[in-house]
């Protein structure tokens, strides 16, 4: 039922006949950086977390997490939310009116993987702009702004994603982001960042988290991607904005009670797992180089900037078939386009796992 058009590959993500491998074989799971399992130490801090009722506003661990993350980004306030999807959609909802137009990259998560959230939750008209590597430039924004005219929708929002998942973990150029901010100022547009993997952009560029995110009115960051928490995202902005988001979170059904149990994992993740992302980036390059040497794949090395590797499958091979074959050897990756497969590096995949994965794929 999902098999339609260029997104056909999405219907076939995990073949049912999996786990066809020798039981003792280690599974090397590179489908996503969301597959990480909490470490022993993370589980320990979860088990011993102080908790309260966060809907009543007195869960000390959530309060500590929100304060800590707000501090990291030099923002007035932060709100813990269950998912990046909810974080993004709340940010759009709180800052918009139905019928406004949102500009974003054609491949962005906010539109393509959040189940039509912008239209369902906020009544936004979405204008998808084709970009090279995820960057909707200042010129593109300027050209897309419609005239103030009785007949036209009001172009009022821009959303960017950094690093950009679908473009292969690419990092948006910061000087261009600043130029987009200037256009937003000139035309009164709201500027949102889906910073699910902003941590990766920070580690790869050396730019600080506040520097990367200051141009945006609202930011949503994920704790459950490369940082390795089992759940949770954080929305950042002014105190007034965050109070509106808190109300909206309740409306979304995202008010949670003794949620310090999982916020503790998020706190552990931001305190311990940011700098180590450099290892994932190095492993991503290692995998990309290794895969590129195989006849089966072509890799655009210039796009391997962080922890994601997108490979083109050569010849008549279909990504779903190749993933299925890899699965039989205990290596997992995702079909990610009509001819593409995505490998994502994370804290549960070591350098020796990469070597082993390349060996198994090579022998396949
Ligand atoms: C770029 C980006 N934004 C947002 C999300 C949504 O996060 P969640 O799965 O927590 O809803 C994801 C998830 O993979 C993502 O890759």
Describe the structure.
The protein is α/β, with parallel strands linked by helices and 364 residues long. It folds into 2 domains: 5-30 and 276-363, Aspartate Aminotransferase, domain 1 (Alpha-Beta Complex), CATH 3.90.1150; 40-272, 3-Layer(aba) Sandwich (Aspartate Aminotransferase, domain 2). It contains 14 helices and 13 strands. The protein has helices spanning 40-47, 60-72, 84-94, 109-112, 117-122, 138-144, 174-187, 198-205, 209-213, 239-251, 260-272, 277-292, 319-328, 351-363, and strands spanning 28-29, 77-81, 100-105, 125-129, 154-161, 190-195, 218-222, 233-237, 297-299, 308-313, 331-332, 334-335, 340-344. Strand 9 (297-299) and strand 10 form a beta hairpin. The longest helix is centred in the last third of the chain and has 16 residues, at 277-292. The protein is globular and about 60 Å long. Residues 1-7 and 11-17 have low confidence and may be disordered. The structure holds pyridoxal-5'-phosphate (PLP). Pyridoxal-5'-phosphate (PLP) binds at residues 34, 83-85, 88, 109, 161, 165, 194, 196, 222, 224, 233.
Output the keywords.
364 residues, alpha/beta, Aspartate Aminotransferase, domain 2, four-stranded antiparallel sheet, single chain, 16% strand, binds pyridoxal-5'-phosphate
In short:
With 364 residues, the protein is an alpha/beta fold. It has 14 helices and 13 strands.
Number of strands: 13
**Unreliable stretches covering 5 or more consecutive residues:** 1-7, 11-17
Nearest-integer average pLDDT: 94
Helical residue percent band? 25-40%
The CATH architecture of the largest domain can be given as: 3-Layer(aba) Sandwich
What portion of the residues fall into strands of 2 or more residues? Answer: 15-25%
In total, the number of domains comes to: 2
CATH class of the largest domain: Alpha Beta
- Structure ligands: pyridoxal-5'-phosphate
The succession of helices and strands, N to C, reads: EHHEHEHHEHEHEHHEEHHHEEHEEEH
* Biggest sheet statistics: 7 strands, mixed
Rounded Rg: 21 Å
